[in-house]
What we know:
Layout: H1 2-30, E1 32-40, H2 44-55, E2 60-64, H3 90-102, E3 127-128, E4 133-134, H4 139-152, E5 156-159, E6 169-172, E7 175-180, E8 186-194, H5 200-204, E9 209-211, H6 216-219, E10 244-246, E11 249-254, E12 282-283, E13 289-290, H7 304-311, E14 321-324, E15 328-331, H8 353-376, H9 382-388, E16 392-394, E17 414-416, H10 424-427, E18 436-440, E19 444-446, E20 450-453, E21 459-462, E22 465-467, E23 473-476, E24 490-491, H11 500-506, H12 509-529, H13 538-547
Parallel strand pairs: 1-2, 1-8, 2-5, 8-24
Antiparallel strand pairs: 3-4, 6-7, 7-8, 9-17, 10-11, 12-16, 13-16, 14-15, 18-23, 19-22, 20-21
Helix pairs in contact: 2-12, 3-4, 3-12, 8-9, 12-13
Amino acid sequence: MQNVNLSKMKNLLLCFIMLGMFSACESSKSKKHEADIIIYGGTSAAITAAVQAKKAGKSVIVVSPDTHLGGLSSGGLGFTDTGDKSVIGGLARDFYHRVYMHYQDSAAWKWQRASEYGNKGQGTPAMDGNARTMWIFEPHAAEQVFEDYVKEYAIDVRRDEWLDREKGIVKSNGKISSFTTLSGQTYTGKIFIDATYEGDLMAAANVSYHVGREANSVYGEKWNGIQVGVLHHGHWFKSDISPYKTSGDSSSGLLYGVSADFPGVHGEGDHRLQAYCFRMCLSNHPENRVPFPKPDGYDADHYELLARVFDSGWRETFQKFDPIPNRKTDTNNHGPFSTDFIGMNYDYPEASYERRKEITQAHEDYQKGLMYFLSNDSRVPEDVRQQMSQWGLAKDEFTDNGHWPHQLYIREARRMIGEYVMTEHDTFSERKISDPVGMGSYALDSHNAQRYVKPDGYVQNEGDIGVTPKQAYQISYGSLVPKKEECTNLMVPVCLSSSHIAFGSIRMEPVFMILGESAATAAVLAIDQNIAVQDVNYSELEKQLLAQHQILALGSK
């Protein structure tokens, strides 16, 4: 009997060993993944590209560093920068149609009646009933649309997967063969799409790019480069404000956030970036607001410059509390001292993941501190504090992140130098685009890049530009692809090939969705014909894009 039991135990042990070997084999296999198209990023462009790839019958994997999908579109930027809505077509328009359908359900209006919200004199009308689109929305509503796309098209999304930027890229004969993430997963594809705000895949593949502002002389532009003395919008100091800790005393040192560096010469290029911020979702509904938290390390003196702005008589605090449904806001930067953390992002594009986390946290601390200061500090005028007391973070948004947006607004990072560089001449329709894959129309919009001391001893901001194109303009296919000698199977619809100031218009979320779809469409053609992305026949691409209801020229439908 003992021999029988011993035999059974040996057999059982052998089974466990075999099972372990099988599991190890399966685990090893699971580290390698293959698809026709590999998309890196979790932005709106990434999901749009994935939808189009699936519609075209291609296999696709979305490798997303982000847990939440949609980038800024679901990360707080609900007051969409649309420009001319007539040139937003294809899947981008479908996204805004789905948002419209969401708000047709009475259950979507929890904190406000639908009749109380609408096109009441807003610069960006919320709803277009005739076109069945809605352009202004809550973050969670947008995120649900992106998740619906993923479910509907059975898109394979790998979340919290970060490219190994140092040694993850395998490249052969001018093509990306695969890339590996920090978790050890390897993704092999025929075409790769970098749909990140940072352009990490593009950079790791040794594709040319630029960071910062080009000199005006590089592309014969007017609005690129350092813009000392140019005062657009209202985001500058309109009164003489001392930048020194003791007002008027330069020996006392500079206030927090003011640079001691020479600002540079007008029109010259530099390394500086337009400022980042979080697009906060605030609520004034008593049952759906959370008091502004006091961040760790809070220092009220970091906001002394704002206190002096208030002392000068400025009262525009609430002018960019843009209303979105259910008594909430998309709160953006406004004025000389606001949510933009000016000058604190210069190293972000090239920084390590760890350093980027530090920069992101510093932006969060600054902005939380700003809201706490506005709500509590006696240096803030009482009328402002009283109005601020009606607001707080929206309790039902970003519920897994302390009601704080999960996406920092990376307005600009790397920009590819590709087959064609979009410049202000293209946005002003001064050059003919022979291969359009979408259209833009928003103002050439750059936020401030630095806060400095003028020769007269007062503080000023620099870099804020807002120039409106005379009409919607075309975006070249050549701006989505690298130079052929650098990589033949990569497409870049977000950090595309553009000058700083042209990117100021192109960088809008609807345009990223448009370009994501167009990039995927071109990728399918390149796969089917086994050619480089640079060799895609534009006539064939144009025919396909028009069939998908992309808008490629003014007046087309």
